[in-house]
Write a structure and sequence with these properties.
The protein is α/β, with parallel strands linked by helices and about 300 residues long. The chain has two domains: about 260 residues, TIM Barrel; about 25 residues. It has 13 helices and eight strands. Helix 4 crosses helix 6 and helix 6 crosses helix 7. The termini are far apart. 3-methyl-2-oxobutanoic acid (KIV) binds next to loops.
Length: about 300
């Protein structure tokens, strides 16, 4: 095992059974052994017809919670540009910024497979640049796989990276890094364009990708692609028939405020809870109620 994995900071609940992987995760690799989920566990899950959840993660506490809650795959998304750094698009986030977040997520987790998104500009030039960047993410980030956006045109990059022993998750359909060419946030693969999405998915699978994200494609198209491929499909805005589902965690947990895309379901109101806690803290400070005797040395 690598230093990064064996040296993972224990971050589970104190005194708990945090060393034991959750049942949902052991089910994926069919045994009690404490080890990380591997890409072949995800292929086997597809063969068994088992669906799995994926979330983004960008920091220690949330990553540890998702790891303990049985999320088998975490993506350190380039959506950190939006959800961590506050940019309008995903384009500005850098390799260095991504690496810091990847290291935090890897240190905080024990069971999850950690996938790092290659940011805009770090792989498009060709297979050599793509492999160089992917190697940095594996060596300096300690992640277990990388992800890149693009279909047929990026098959050479995927071949080069997987050829060096680095698992690649592909991403087709709506690819946010190309939003300026696509012309905004738009569903891809409607009508005859369905064939393009299928061809892209087949090409990235043929190039060696272990899974493929399908973003904002009609449910029927995602269903067809999922049936046509032996590798798992991971849907976001792609309907219920993909092998896996991914959401940005701040969307899933209701931390992000404002209008969310239609494909988002909020499972909590963290923005409300945090606003409430913040207001009470501020009020108590102003009223001289915090700190109380028990908080004072
Ligand atoms: N917080 C967050 N969630 C995401 O899902 C996400 C990010 N950030 N950052 C990177 C990309 C950008 N994504 C987006 C952003 C906006 C829409 C959106 O506004 N969609 C509209 C219009 C769809 C249409 O009309 O075709 C929607 O209502 O879903 C979709 C995906 C997905 N990714
Ligand atoms: C939404 C997922 C698939 C992603 O690419 C990201 O968060 O960056
Ligand atoms: Mg991304």
């Amino acid at each position: 095992m690598s230093d990064v994995v064996s040296g993972a900071v224990p971050t589970g609940p104190a005194g708990g059974t945090s060393a034991d992987p959750p049942a949902e995760v052991t089910a994926l690799y069919g045994g009690p052994a404490t080890r990380r989920v591997r890409t072949r566990d995800l292929l086997a899950a597809k063969e068994r017809g088992e669906r799995w959840p994926m979330l983004t993660a960008y920091d220690q506490y949330t990553a540890a919670i998702f790891d303990q809650a049985g999320i088998p795959v975490l993506l350190v998304g380039d959506s950190a540009a939006n959800n961590v750094f506050g940019h309008e698009t995903t384009l500005p986030v850098t390799v260095e910024e991504m690496l810091s977040l990847v290291r935090a997520v890897v240190r905080a987790t024990r069971h999850t497979l950690v996938v790092a998104d290659l940011p805009f500009g770090s792989y498009e030039e060709g297979p050599t640049q793509a492999l160089r960047t992917a190697v940095r993410f594996m060596k300096e980030g300690g992640c277990h796989a990388v992800k890149l956006e693009g279909g047929r045109r990026y098959a050479p990059q995927i071949e080069a990276i997987t050829g060096a022993g680095i698992p690649v998750m592909a991403h087709v359909g709506f690819t946010p890094q190309r939003e300026h060419v696509i012309g905004g946030y738009r569903v891809q693969g409607r009508g005859e364009a369905a064939e393009e999405v299928l061809a892209d998915a087949q090409a990235v699978a043929g190039a060696g990708a272990f899974a493929v994200v399908l973003e904002m494609v009609p449910g029927e198209v995602a269903k067809r692609v999922t049936g046509a491929l032996t590798i798992p499909t991971v849907g976001i805005g792609a309907g219920p028939d993909t092998d896996a589902q991914v959401l940005v965690w701040q969307d899933m947990a209701g931390l992000r405020t404002g209008r969310a895309p239609r494909f988002v379901k909020r499972y909590a109101d963290l923005a409300g809870a945090l606003t409430d806690a913040t207001r009470r803290f501020a009020d108590e400070v102003r009223a001289g109620e915090f700190p109380a005797a028990e908080h004072t040395f």
